[in-house]
Design a protein that fits this description.
Chain lengths: 167, 59
C-alpha cells in the first residue's frame, strides 16, 4: 500500500497528473472501522489533450516503478490500483476538495466524507448504500456541506428518498 | 441449523462454520476498537485482512 501511494504522489509531483484523491473503500476507512477492500481507487485529474483523456502516461510510469498488469488490474506489490478519471462533475469536485492526511510519514489526499457519500449516492449499488450508513453512523458528517454537494450534482432526490426509507 | 444462543450458522470461505452472533460481536468490537485509531493503523488492519484472504485462497 505504501509503495502504491508513494507512486501516486510522484505522478502529481512529476506533472503526469494534475491532481488526485484516494476514494472508494480505502478512503472510507478514514471515517469508519476498517472494512475489507481489495483495490486502491485513485481518482485523477489528467491532462486533457483535445478532449481525450490520456492514461497511458500514468500506466507507463507505474510500470517503470515496478507495477504490473495482472488480468484487468494494475498491481503495485500486492495492491491492485485502479485509476479513475475525475476531470469533471462530482468527481472533479471531490478531488479538488480532498483533504490531506498523514500516512506512514507522507501526505496522502483523501476524498472528504461528504463527497464520498455523494459519490456513493451517484453509483447507488447496495454496497454504496452500506457505505453511506457506515460513514453517517461513525463520523460527524457536515450535513450542510453534504446537502450543498448533493444539490450541486443533482443527487438531492436520492438523498431524500434514502432518508425517508431509513427513518 | 440454528444455535439458540448464537444464531444462524454461517459457512465462511475456508469451509469453517461460525455463528451469526459471533460475527456480529466481532464486527461490533472491531468498530469499538478502531474508533480511536489513526488512518495508518486502520490501513494496517486492512492489510492484515487482505493477507488473510490471500492465505485462505491458497488453501
Amino acid at each position: 500500500m505504501r509503495k502504491a501511494l508513494e507512486i501516486v504522489n510522484e505522478l502529481k509531483e512529476k506533472g503526469i497528473i494534475k491532481d488526485y484523491a484516494i476514494g472508494g473503500g480505502v478512503a472510507s476507512i478514514n471515517y469508519t472501522e476498517p472494512v475489507f477492500t481489495r483495490d486502491l481507487d485513485v481518482f485523477v485529474i489528467v491532462k486533457d489533450t483535445g478532449g481525450i483523456l490520456r492514461f497511458s502516461e500514468i500506466y507507463d510510469y507505474v510500470k517503470k516503478r515496478g507495477g504490473a498488469w495482472k488480468g484487468e488490474h494494475l498491481f503495485v506489490s500486492n495492491t491492485p490500483v485502479q485509476f479513475l478519471p475525475a476531470n469533471n462533475g462530482l468527481y472533479k469536485d471531490a478531488v479538488l476538495n480532498a483533504k490531506e492526511i498523514d500516512y506512514d510519514e507522507m501526505k496522502v489526499r483523501i476524498i472528504s466524507a461528504e463527497h464520498l457519500i455523494a459519490m456513493s449516492f451517484a453509483v447507488g449499488r447496495s454496497k454504496d448504500y452500506e457505505r453511506i450508513d457506515r460513514i453517517i453512523d461513525q463520523y460527524t458528517v457536515d450535513f450542510k456541506v453534504l446537502k450543498s454537494i448533493l444539490k450541486r450534482h443533482n443527487l438531492y432526490d436520492k438523498y431524500e428518498s434514502w432518508k425517508k426509507n431509513r427513518n | 441449523m440454528t444455535n439458540m444462543n448464537r444464531g444462524r450458522k454461517i459457512e465462511i470461505e475456508n469451509g469453517k462454520i461460525i455463528f451469526e452472533k459471533d460475527l456480529y460481536e466481532s464486527k461490533k468490537s472491531l468498530r469499538k476498537y478502531s474508533a480511536n485509531l489513526s488512518f495508518e493503523e486502520k490501513i494496517n488492519i486492512l492489510l492484515k485482512m487482505q493477507e488473510a484472504v490471500r492465505c485462505l485462497k491458497k488453501v
